[in-house]
Amino acid sequence: MTNNNPIGVFDSGIGGTSIWKAIHDLLPNEKTIYLADSKNAPYGQKSKEEIVALSKKNVDFLLEMNCKTIVVACNTATTNAIRELRADYDIPFIGIEPAIKPAANNSKTQVIGILATKGTLNSELFNKTAEMFQNTTIIEQVGYGLVQLIEDGNLNSPEMTQLLESYLKPMIDANIDYLVLGCSHYPYLIPQIKKILPDHIQIIDSGEAVARQTQNILREKVGFSDAKNSIPEFYVNSNPTVLKSILDHKYDVIQKDF
Ligand code: DGL
Question: What is the CA(1)–ligand 1 centre distance, in A?
Answer without folding.
Answer: 34
